[in-house]
Amino acid sequence: MITSTLSLLALSAIASAHSDHRQKAIAGPHQSLWYNTIPGDGGTQADSVFSGISTFGRLPYFPCLSSEAEKYDIAFIGEFGSVTLATFEECSQPQALPSILAPHTDLVQDSARVASDKVPAVLISSSRKLGFSGGYNVPLEANPFVSELKVLDCGDIPVTSYDNAWAIQQIEEGHNSLLMRKPFTDADAEGLSRAGKTLPRIITLGGDHTITLPLLRSINKAYGPVTVIHFDSHLDTWKPKVFGGSPSQVAAINHGTYFYHAAMEGLLKNDTNIHAGIRTTLSGPSDYENDGYCGFEIVEAREIDTIGTEGIIKKIRDRVGTENPVYLSIDIDTLDPAFAPATGTPETGGWSTRELRTIIRGLDGLNFIGADIVEVAPAYDTNAELSTMAAADVLYEVLTIMVKKGPLSISKGHELLGEPSRRGVLSRGDDFELFSPKDGDDGSSERYEIIGRIVGMGDGSASVFYTALTGLG
């Protein structure tokens, strides 16, 4: 009895002592809680990293397709629903889906693997950490989340699950609806589009790589033929008879033939396009010959062993040039399966995540008018979500170089010839060719073609080496 009484008294004493150390709720307005403070700027945010609605990098969300009330300079979009971009008889199993924010989706089919309905949630979840410590990109010395440009997550393009041809048309029309609007910045400035206007840029998160074809069709309406930089382990320029057998018109358009169709439709600018990361097996040497006919140069993945990332960057920049409007398409299978196992058609011998991010950063300054990332299949990912994390980080690099470039307006950048009407976004060593209006003293209007090279840069000015100055009348 005495032992029981002593034990009870001891427990009471412990409980009493512990009562002085109980945790208490943090008092005060929600927006000023300590864990919401953003490091470095002294500001606060009302949400923690994992609260609030899911958007890429926790960007502001606006339903851009249903309302034009919000303008933007760069928009993230996805395609809600699934697109079966090849027939089941042609494919072994279903694969990834073109969607980002959809709460659930059906499966779509690819040549090798099945995916799940987790692409949207997992990919967006992996991107939420990007702004956790402020979002500043150290190698590129820019913060894509804090700039003069307005970046939004515009949600998804609704896509039917039951008609492939109609789904592709829906993607094209939805993308074009967003692309052809006035941007938030430099809305009335001259730009690179066919109409001479500045347009917003769209970054698309997809599944099957077939979506690049309708995206290029949309872009063609705005810019005409464009230069394409294509990161992939596969060519994707195969003729339909070679890849898939082409049993029907619908089946002829798939994730291995879309660039062939893009070339045949005149969507690609001749001899300025390039693949990087190629390491696939071929049906024969004729595949490379056909690829050249489609307007591409090839950088094989193995070249990184001899020329390194700097050599690959140089090859891409030399091929593309600094003046052309450029579209960037990234297949996650560019990465070795060790770094991104969750993809439809994995190929060993690929690049590391660090190498790909370094190469993309090396393209800083190019005129990127849009981009996509595709072929992520989270069903094959690790518990650590390596593939979706890699995809999100790659897009972070893409977004940063777009933001760092600023609006693609001709009126932005370094002044040429000391006249405000003659401006271009140029860097030292760039060759340039531009057409510039000049009003004469008598009120007449003349047009000049100016060709030259930037040989020096100053604050707000440029030194120009002229190679031609031609009056066009």
From TrEMBL:
Q: What is the lineage of its organism?
A: Eukaryota, Fungi, Dikarya, Ascomycota, Pezizomycotina
Which top EC class is named for this enzyme in its record?
A: hydrolase
Which UniProt key words apply to this protein? Hydrolase, Metal-binding, Signal
- What GO biological process term is on the record, naming one? putrescine biosynthetic process from arginine, via agmatine
Q: Which GO terms describe its molecular function?
A: agmatinase activity; metal ion binding
Task: State the reactions this protein catalyses.
Answer: agmatine + H2O = urea + putrescine
Family that this chain belongs to: Belongs to the arginase family.
Full protein name: agmatinase
**Signal sequence span per UniProt?**
1-17
Q: Would I find Mitochondrion among this entry's keywords? A: no
